[in-house]
Amino acid sequence: MHYYHFLHKDRPVSDVPGSVKLFLLLTLFLQLLWHSFQEPIVAKAEDLAAPLSTRTYVLSSLGEPIAASKFLNLWLQAFDNQPGASISFHQLNYPRLTQWLDTSLELDPRGHYPMLVAARVYGSVKDPEKQRIMMDYIFYKFNENPQKYWRWLAHAVITAKHELKDFDLALKYANALAEQATDDNVPYWAKDMKIIVLEDMGEVEAAKILVGALIDSKEITDPYELKFLAQKIAVLEEKSFKKRQSVEK
């Protein structure tokens, strides 16, 4: 839920007494630093506590939600390096991690940093289960705002195809890009990722039909995209011909 919903629910932050703001600010710092000072020699994945409410962070940051978001981002990035110990990304509680990323995005709705670390930091661990959690999180956020988060879902397509080797998942994400990321600011290579995935899956005929339909639709006017599609259909025709020859033999 957007942070301003909390601000207008009861009363504006400016009405909160300074002493209360100071107390909340101190509470925030104590909550975030608590685990760093507890048993510093032994770091555990369970040490990542659940985030506080968005309203609490807004109040404790003295009405500066973007500053609070940046602070949370830095704290979360440093969480794996605690005094006297180091936590591998593999050990982190990923469902809990997504709660922190969500909180940061709620505090700074225009920011992209939480999506960046979801895709390229936490989503890059050599742990398929945890990678799937991050990719599904990116897919969830994309469905909330396709025109804003399309680039991160495009990254998820690549991760699913090349790292997870899950072509069905890659196709699911690529389909969503093609159907929902429709703004002019979304480049054609992102919208056309479905063609590449189908081709890699060996679904040459399906890819040919899709490319032909895109060209025949007359909806695409960008000369570069039309050139890309023309080249792609030529490649697919060649692959289809070779496939037919191998079957006949």
List keywords for this structure.
2% strand, single chain, disordered N terminus, two-stranded antiparallel ribbon, 68% helix, 249 residues, mainly alpha
Give the SSE order as H and E letters. Answer: HHHHEEHHHHHHHHH
Helix content: 55-70%
CA(first)-CA(last) distance:
61 Å
Shape field? elongated
Q: Number of helix segments?
A: 13
Task: Give the strand content.
Answer: under 5%
**Could you tell me the number of beta strands?**
2
Total count of domains: 2
Unreliably modeled segments: 1-11
Can you give a write-up of this model?
This protein is mainly alpha-helical and 249 residues long. It has two domains: 3-187, no CATH class; 202-249. It has helices at 3-9, 18-37, 54-60, 65-78, 94-107, 113-120, 128-144, 146-163, 167-180, 188-191, 193-200, 204-216, 223-248; strands at 81-82, 85-86. Strands 1-2 form a two-stranded antiparallel ribbon. It starts with a helix and ends with a helix.
